[in-house]
Amino acid sequence: MKIASLLLLSAALITGCTTTELEPIPGSITYQGQPRTKLTKAPVGSTFSHDFYQGSRVVEETYQIQPDRSLKIVRREYRTIFPD
Predict the structure, then answer these.
(1) 12: in domain
(2) Residue 44 is part of which domain span?
(3) CA separation (Å) from 79 to 9, 62, 84?
(4) Which domain of life is it from (predicted)?
(5) Phi and psi for 80 in degrees, rounded to 5?
(6) Which residue of 30, 44, 62, 80 pairs with 24 in a disulfide if CB–CB is 3.0 to 4.6 A?
(7) Could you tell me the pTM of the whole model?
(8) Quick one: pLDDT at residue 37?
(9) Does residue 74 lie within any of the structural domains?
(10) CA angle, corner 52, sides to 50 and 58, nearest 5?
(11) How far apart are CA 17 and CA 41, in angstroms?
């Protein structure tokens, strides 16, 4: 019985690890499409962060520059402004 439970738990964890594409939200640099200006001097694969407010929390997004010079959101973190 323990082995069956362990297998089910392992399968659930592996399923939860699948990478999903982060969709832009209001405030994201790419919310209304890719920016018009291209980051021509930044190396492909480099990352940078962008912070903005969404209600009572701060959103920090990390973008990665793709080979075609478009931006991809690779991480999003929410922080409350006034922690309890």
Answers:
(1) no
(2) 23-84
(3) 29, 14, 12
(4) Bacteria
(5) -80, 145
(6) 30
(7) 0.73
(8) 87
(9) yes
(10) 110
(11) 33
The SS3 assignment for 73 reads strand
Burial (CB count <10 Å: 0-12, 13-18, 19+), residue 29? middle
| Burial status of residue 63 (CB atoms within 10 A of its CB: 0-12, 13-18, 19 or more) | buried
Residue 4 lies in a domain: no
- For the CA atoms of 13, 19, 21, 23, the dihedral, rounded to the nearest 10 degrees, stands at 30
Q: Rounded to an integer, what distance in angstroms lies between the CA atom of residue 66 and that of residue 78?
A: 24
Number of domains in the chain: 1
d(CA 40, CA 69) in angstroms, rounded, equals: 7
In a domain, 14, yes or no: no
pLDDT in tens, 9-39: 565 555 555 568 999 999 999 999 999 888 8
